[in-house]
Amino acid sequence: MNKFKRTLSGAAENKVIDEDYKDCDEGGNPITARFSDDLPKKMVAWIDSKGVTIFMTVLTIFVLWGDDLRVCAFTYQHDVYFNVLFLGAMVRYDRIIIYCTRY
Question: pLDDT (tens digit, 9 = 90+) per residue, 56-88?
Fold first, then answer.
């Protein structure tokens, strides 16, 4: 980025070229917020999408009845797999809660 105009002699003037700072704030720092301006809208659209709603519904049914299914239909050797699935469900719920409260 060329911050200063150059004269014919090569000396830098104190005039700042406006084109160099078109993507900067008043302090000359690059603006990075322009990429996150649409992020809240995209996150809400993603959370409210059909796929996420169906996935979270199936996950909720599994969490509610998964332990009963584990006790009735599986042996104790399968407890580890169910615990991993329950932990994954908890992480998914935490992400959704964080996304919903942030955006």
Answer: 999 999 999 999 999 999 999 999 999 999 999
| Residue the block writes with tokens 């955006």 | 103
Q: Which residues of 40-51 are buried (b: 16+ CB within 10 A; e: fewer)?
A: eeeeeeeeeeee
Which of 87, 90, 59 lies closest to 79, judged by CA?
87
Torsions phi, psi of 23, nearest 5? -105, 30
32: its two tokens: 């990075």
Dist. CA 22–CA 81, nearest whole Å: 55
Instruction: Tell me if the pTM is above 0.85.
Output: no
Separation CA 98–CA 101 (nearest Å): 5
Q: What's the chain's average pLDDT?
A: 78
Euclidean distance between CA atoms 26 and 14, whole angstroms: 16
Q: Are 5 and 12 contacting, i.e. CB atoms less than 8 angstroms apart?
A: yes
DSSP 88-103: HHHHHHHHHHHHHHH-
The answer to whether the CB of 70 falls within 8 A of the CB of 82 is: yes
